[in-house]
Amino acid sequence: MSFQTQRRTILHIDMDSFFSAVEVRENPSLKGLPVVVGADPKEGKGRGVVSTASYEAREYGIHSGMPISRAYKLCPDAKFLPVNMLLYRKVSSRVMGILRKYADKFQQVSVDEAYLDVSRKVRRYKNTEDLALEIKKEMYEKEKLTCSIGIGPNKTIAKIASDFKKPDGLTLIEPHKVKEFLSSLPVRKLPGVGKKTEKILNEMGIENIGQLAKIDAQRLVGLFGKWGYRIHLLANGIDESEVREVREAKSVSRQITFEEDTNDSARLNRTIDHISEKVHKDLLRGGYIFKTVSIRVRLEDFETHTRAKTIDSFTKDLNVIKKISKDLLKEFIGEKKIRLLGIRLSNLEKIDEKQRFIEEFVS
Ligand code: TTP
Ligand code: MG
Questions:
Q1: CA 26/CA 16 separation, integer angstroms
Q2: Residue 48 Cβ < 6 Å to ligand 1
């Protein structure tokens, strides 16, 4: 017996050559030129990589992640620009503000992409195209930026569809066309199938998603564990995952009340280590990086104090939490005993896969 799962209408929106499009918008004389955003090429001797390239620069074979020295060789006359993350973040939040309005449920997944569940808003699946055109229109009018939109009955199909025609694309996959759409695409197009998985599949003679869909699920589980089963479902166009409204945490914090008040500095510092580890775990679980560490100290007479320190750049380093907390605590280690100790991390940023990559080479 099969049962009908809830029918969804999902949009996936991905901005076109985002960083370089923002640069071109800020400086229209760059329009139509090959623009490369990334590390300084230093006339071919630069280290570091390409963050993104305009579509004109892509014609020279330049792409994200490529060593900047190689990009320079491919097109020395391209306009090479440094990464201005602050600017892109600002634009990103305005872009997300525009998209959010159109959704029943909204999920931002990176600086320049988001899922919109519009199942309730759009009654007839086909009409979603009109909604997508409206979004594109507003995006261009307000931000002078183009995006590519994929429409599908689930997140995976929408995501693959948004990448199908770029830039300024619009691809709607009707539910009964999902299998046909997937069948001729290379396995690498499935989200989560990276180089390693692709290599193993290719060695088995599996090149496209249609072939993958026919492989026995058990065989994939044998090869890849749980992930194998998910691949099996995705290859068959099945993805039940929901568009999740991610409520941003403002801070993460932990505190401990001592069994017995104490002013023993070794004990207090050990407790700081312990709370730091807990709060650090919460931080990682949420996928955050932080800039501010605060401590809360309640003394034996219930007098309560907080102290905070903000550092220059985002981090997720446990040792930074420990060190700052211990420094802040110093002034409270004295005669009066301490009853409660707490640590809070705030000024949080979410790190998604793309940003994780960016953090690595911008810092
Ligand atoms: P993408 O959406 O992957 O790329 P893009 O927007 O530049 O181009 P398109 O979507 O039209 O193919 O990534 C969004 C931004 O994230 C991109 O503009 C720069 C940044 N980024 C990196 O810094 N390094 C990377 O390796 C990738 C893939 C993206
Ligand atoms: Mg993009």
A1: 15
A2: no
Q: Which atom of ligand 1 is nearest to the CA of 112?
A: 14
Which residues, including other chains, have CB under 8 Å from residue 161's CB and lie 6 or more apart? 12, 150, 151, 152, 171, 172, 173, 181
Q: Is the CB of 64 under 6 A from ligand 1?
A: yes
Query: How far, in Å, from the CA of 214 to the mean position of ligand 2?
Result: 31
- Counting from 1 in the atom list of ligand 1, the atom nearest the Cα of 20 is 18
Closest ligand 1 atom, residue 37 Cα: 19
In this structure, the residue with its CA closest to atom 5 of ligand 1 is 17
Burial 251-288 (b: 16+ CB within 10 A, else e): bbbbbeebeeebeeeeebbebbeebbeebbeebeeebb
DSSP string, 191-258: TT--HHHHHHHHHTT--BHHHHHHS-HHHHHHHHTHHHHHHHHHHTT---------PPPSEEEEEEEE
Task: Please report the pLDDT score of residue 128 as a whole number.
Answer: 97
> Cα separation of 110 and 88, whole Å?
12
Q: Is the CB of 23 under 6 A from ligand 1?
A: no
Distance (Å) from CA 355 to ligand 1 centroid: 10
Instruction: Report the nearest-CA residue for atom 4 of ligand 1.
Output: 17
Tokens of 232: 């099996």
Q: Is 113 a catalytic residue?
A: yes
Look at strands 79-81 and 35-38 and give their pairing. parallel
Above 90 in pLDDT, residue 198? yes
Write out the E strands in 118-202: 147-152, 170-172
pLDDT at residue 345 above 80?
yes
User: How far is residue 257's CA from residue 340's CA, in Å, rounded to a whole number?
Assistant: 4
> Is residue 2 scored above 50 in pLDDT?
no
Task: Read off the tokens for 290.
Answer: 């932080």
